[in-house]
From TrEMBL:
Protein name: phosphoglycerate mutase (2,3-diphosphoglycerate-dependent)
PANTHER family (alphabetical): PHOSPHOGLYCERATE MUTASE
Organism placement in taxonomy: Bacteria, Pseudomonadati, Pseudomonadota, Betaproteobacteria, Neisseriales
Organism from which the protein derives: Neisseria bacilliformis ATCC BAA-1200
CDD domains: HP_PGM_like
Assigned keywords, A-Z: Gluconeogenesis, Glycolysis, Isomerase
Length: 221
């Protein structure tokens, strides 16, 4: 049996609005984020889309998004499980920092002219520069580099696949960089180095042998 996975990024949060890194830290969904999660659930209900199981990162912003979505989709009966492996990348001592402030710091440390030049680089060929640069600069030495992050998210996807055995379609609510990492683990060309939008859907499919393929990336329904 094939398995269809709907990867949904959590709703907009206070830190998203302020331009701050969240990572393993958390901030609440904004009223807009809550309303958008509910709206996505209602649109899924209207389209007749049903899930056999649901998963969410253990971060409260992902858990609340999943519960709002399932509730407004009329699928409160769908079992919801939680996964540490689906959490966002850990930024260590940079948790809660303004994103632009960190870009400027890393640009200087990496020898770029300014933050804009650094941002251009991380959206180009050197896709893992940001994670590796942040990990190298982290004063607490807790931030994940791209190898650790890629390994964690790949393991989380495999754990999800095993847990969803016998299911046809499942939901997983996670985070922007987590979803991007999962997509890149399967198909490096599936997406540029960017974060998928809040409450967008990226669809994957696993065949009977557990081989995944990317069917869509960051779609807004």
């Amino acid at each position: 049996m094939t398995l269809e996975l709907w990867l949904v990024r959590h709703g907009k949060t206070v830190f998203n609005t302020l331009g701050r890194l969240q990572g393993w830290s958390d901030s609440p969904l904004t009223p807009e984020g809550c309303a958008a999660a509910a709206d996505l659930g209602m649109r899924l209900a209207a389209s007749g889309t049903r899930f056999d199981a649901a998963f969410a990162s253990t971060a409260p912003r992902a858990v609340k998004t999943a519960r709002l979505l399932l509730s407004h989709a009329g699928q409160e009966d769908v079992p919801l499980r939680f996964s540490d492996g689906l959490r966002e990348c850990c930024f260590g001592g940079f948790e809660g920092e303004y994103v632009q402030t960190l870009y400027a710091l890393l640009a200087e440390r990496q020898g770029y002219a300014d933050a804009q030049a650094f941002q251009t680089a991380i959206r180009g060929a050197d896709r893992f520069l940001f994670l590796d640069a942040a990990a190298q600069a982290d004063p607490l030495a807790l931030a994940e580099d791209h190898e650790r992050f890629a390994a964690r998210t790949a393991a989380a996807l495999e754990e999800l696949r095993r847990a969803a055995r016998g299911c046809r379609r499942v939901l997983a609510v996670a985070h922007g960089m987590t979803i991007t990492a999962i997509l890149k683990n399967i198909d490096p060309a599936a997406t540029e180095y960017r974060s998928v939008p809040n409450l967008s859907v990226s669809r994957l499919r696993s065949d009977e042998n557990g081989v995944w393929r990317v069917e869509s990336v960051g779609q807004t329904l």
